Amino acid sequence: MKKEIRHVIKADQFTKESLEEIFILADDMVANPDKYSESLKKKIVATLFYEPSTRTRLSFETAALQLGAGLISTENAGTASSEVKGETIKDTIEVTAGYADAIVMRHPNVDSAEIAARVSSVPILNAGSGSGEHPTQALLDVYTIKQVKEDLNNLKVAVSGDLKHGRTIHSLIKLLSLYDNTTIYGLSRAFFRLPQKYIDYLIESEAKYIPVSQFEELPNDLDILYHTRTQLERFKNEATGVIDEYIINNDVMKSFSNQTYVMHPLPRVKEISEDFDNDPRAIYIKQAHNGVPIRKALLLKSINHSY
Ligand code: NCD
Fold first, then answer.
1. I need a surface site. Which of 52, 101, 220, 289 has the fewest CB within 10 A?
2. Best substitution site from 50, 51, 134, 171 to test ligand 1's pocket, by max atoms within 8 Å of Cβ?
3. DSSP string of the chain?
4. What is the pTM of this model?
5. Which of 2-6, 127-131, 213-217, 285-289 has the lowest mean pLDDT?
């Protein structure tokens, strides 16, 4: 019988148990890197990026190389692949699947990962689908939260900035809602509010959602403050007026406990002041580094059909 292909498309495909399995494997990969250095020997991973990326592409490629896989890559697929000539996602994926054992794809279309998975004969790993989802980022985010908080139940997490277009937030809140007694605060200006479908998802998952408009409305004992960049590239044609962004700095963070950790998927522009970088509560660099073990675990599990 043909084995089912193990794609990574959306955050809601994961359960608490499957996340735990991935975290255990990622921990083991950190502790015993040599054990896995040939796990994907003779396999080839393709990275197809139709949008800019630093961390996601480089950490996926580091992950593949650390597992002994070879890489084929189009860094600027939006301008340097046959999409420019009018090729569809379907054709690109069907062809690339004949060259590689897994395809990591970032694309501006919110449905891109699903479209790719429908036609691919090898696993698709969604590295960001427009303003929709970014599931592998959410996994490394929850892995990072677990490292600082240990217990993923009873968390109070604020997501802030561009909740409307921020795909990292959309995937993260879905994963957090798997745990007991989760409260999500959404800090944003009116235009950037969390879309209703994600609020409905949280309510259905029995997580609490509390929209706020100022840092002062957040509890002092907040566990995580997850800030994001305004996704300017997503709403070029909509009138928004002046964007009054929330800036996290030492002053703002004085009102939070010494256990309120600040995360950000990066890149940041100016929404977290560099002055805050040396505060022990600033964990965004650690978070970015966690992309490697998590993506190693995901690549290995996808290619070995072992979710
Ligand atoms: C994010 C993305 O691409 O969605 N970056 C990332 O993958 N770490 C966030 C962003 O671009 O603002």
1. 220
2. 134
3. -PPPP--B--GGG--HHHHHHHHHHHHHHHH-GGGGTTTTTT-EEEEEESS--SHHHHHHHHHHHHTT-EEEEETTHHHHSGGGGT--HHHHHHHHTTT-SEEEEEESSTTHHHHHHHH-SS-EEEEEETTTB-HHHHHHHHHHHHHHHS--SS-EEEEES-TTT-HHHHHHHHHHTTSTT-EEEEE--GGGPPPHHHHHHHHHTT-EEEEESSGGGS-TT-SEEEE----GGG-TTS---S-----B-HHHHTTS-TT-EEE--S--SSSB-GGGGGSTTB-HHHHHHTHHHHHHHHHHHHHTT--
4. 0.95
5. 2-6
